[in-house]
Amino acid sequence: MVDAGDTAWMLVATGLVLFMTPGLAFFYGGMVRAKNVLGMLMQNFFAMGLMAIVWVGIAFSLAFGNFGDGGLIGNLDFAWMRHVDQGVGPEAFALSIPFVLFCAYQMTFAVITPALITGATADRFKFKAYAVFIALWLVLVYAPVAHWVFGGGWLAKLGALDFAGGAVVHINAGAAALAVILVLGKRRGWPREGMHPHSLPLTLLGTGILWFGWFGFNAGSALAANGVAAQALMNTFLAASAGMVGWLLVEQVKEGTPTTLGAASGAVAGLVAITPCAGFVGGMSPIAIGFVAGVLCVLAIQLKFRFGYDDSLDVIGVHLVGGLAGALMLGLFADSAVNDVVTHEGLFLGGGLTLLWYQLVASVATLVFSLVVSFAIAKVIDKVMGLRVSPEDEDEGLDASQHAESAYSFGATGSMDRLG
Amino acid sequence: MKLVTAIIKPHKVDDVKEALKAAGLHGMTVDEVKGFGRQGGKTEIYRGAEYVVDLLPKVRVETVVPDELADQVADIMVAAARTGKIGDGKVWITTVDKVIRIRTGELGDDAV
């Protein structure tokens, strides 16, 4: 039966998670150069356009059809909004909210996950190729992985835990980001030329929006207005705070200066890491999880300089590494007193290594699958229509070359008359 | 006539302007410019990547004055713009061949 309280909360949570995508747009947008900021904002906003349609068209059904089958992919039972109505949906889901709301809530995850990739591919992804990529990616990568974990597929059956998408969202998007930049190549002039952020205030604004929206992402993943949701909200808050403190401490020790970009990045690293754990841990654990993620990620973002891949805004360093850290730390901190879904407790709670092993399997499976299939999609698109903008367009910037606009007009000298 | 040019620290613009006004000067032109001298640059850090900002913001003040006033104007600028720290800037004087006031067509000292 539909529960009014649960439904009210999930209506709000859906809005909160959707708001994360514009938040992400500004988080990334502030970090790129001024000539590429509209290109970055557009790629994120466009995900709210295209992904929603692909989701209700087919991807939702591929993710959640055949719920609980322990398999690899769903079916077409819910494609084209079939059976997606105001009732609580099939019994296996055990929902207390309208099935159409469940579909909408999951849709906001399907919007932001491919958008996460844009931070790695900044300044050089051709817009039309990006649009084709995320449409294919949602169907061929996101939907299967979501089925494995959220749709009662093989990883769920195995016993791996992922409360709000450490594997489905962050490991998945981080691995895809790595695959795409292997095909795209580095930005012209990287790492020799200075490419520092053009507006850190935008980045901090985006971080605030992400933090705010993440309460819907994690606490909403309880799918009900209950104690687990409250615990998830508190855990989310604390992990972000500890992530910020951890990142800044490393900066203070290494460089002698805590930076605003570091504060923002550390908070996001903590949020990423708590995502799989949010409704499964309690007490002081979220502080440990967030802090470790903050410290790990600030060190991980230096790897790109050693290996020479241009992960422009550190999607791999923050989302892949943070997601892996969170998924594995769940194997240490999972607590059955917090959530009775936890059947094997974490190592630190005396549960042994079982859950940690399941978490490792889930993380590696997601990483490898996403890396391989995303690479294949990117390669095919590159052959068919070209993945990357021309060198001239890249130098001019995505704003002008892809969208025929400029972000900032300060009344500089020169004419700007209407042509007609 | 002489052109007196000063490159100064941005926060000293108002002091220079007020000092020149107090001395009875009728006009000056100001630009925001960038450059480097002995002060060198500054370092910025973004996610561990260090950037050297080698061109620092300065303000260029220019004014054209009759020959006999040039040294006095330069001294006023130096006094008003000085903080005593590195990066205070420079003042120099160059000779100007001809000046025309656009509105009236007046020439030379009458035009400045």
Could you name the key traits of this structure?
heterodimer, A: 420 residues, Ammonium transporter fold, 15 helices, 64% helix, 0% strand, globular, B: 112 residues, alpha+beta, Alpha-Beta Plaits, four-stranded antiparallel beta sheet, two-stranded antiparallel sheet, elongated
How does this model look, in words?
- The complex is a heterodimer of chains A (about 425) and B (about 110).
- With about 425 residues, chain A is mainly alpha-helical.
- Chain A contains 15 helices and no strands.
- Chain A has one domain (about 5-405): Ammonium transporter AmtB like domains (Ammonium transporter fold), CATH 1.10.3430.10.
- Chain A is about 65% helix and about 0% strand.
- In chain A, α2 (about 35-65) crosses α3, α7 runs parallel beside α9 (about 260-275) and α8 (about 225-255) runs antiparallel to α9.
- With about 110 residues, chain B is α+β, with helices and mostly antiparallel strands.
- Chain B has a single domain, classed as Alpha-Beta Plaits (2-Layer Sandwich).
- Helices cover about 20% and strands about 35% of the residues of chain B.
- The longest helix of chain B is centred in the C-terminal third of the chain and has 12 residues, at about 70-80.
- The interface of A and B includes residues 191, 254, 255, 259 and 262 of A.
Considering the protein shown, what is the CATH homologous superfamily of chain A?
Ammonium transporter AmtB like domains
The parts of chain A where pLDDT drops under 50 for at least 5 residues are: none
Q: What is the end-to-end distance of chain B?
A: 9 Å
- Structural class call of chain B reads alpha+beta
Counted beta strands of chain A: 0
Q: Report the portion of residues of chain A in β strands.
A: under 5%
Q: What is this structure's SSE topology?
A:
The complex is a heterodimer of chains A (420) and B (112).
Chain A: H1 4-29, H2 37-64, H3 99-116, H4 127-149, H5 154-158, H6 166-184, H7 200-219, H8 227-255, H9 260-274, H10 285-300, H11 303-307, H12 315-333, H13 354-385, H14 391-396, H15 398-403
Helix pairs in contact in A: 1-2, 1-3, 1-7, 2-3, 2-4, 3-4, 3-6, 4-6, 4-13, 6-12, 6-13, 7-8, 7-9, 8-9, 8-10, 9-10, 9-12, 10-12, 12-13
Chain B: E1 2-8, H1 13-22, E2 29-35, E3 42-46, E4 49-53, E5 56-65, H2 70-81, E6 89-95
Antiparallel strand pairs in B: 1-5, 1-6, 2-5, 3-4
Helix pairs in contact in B: 1-2
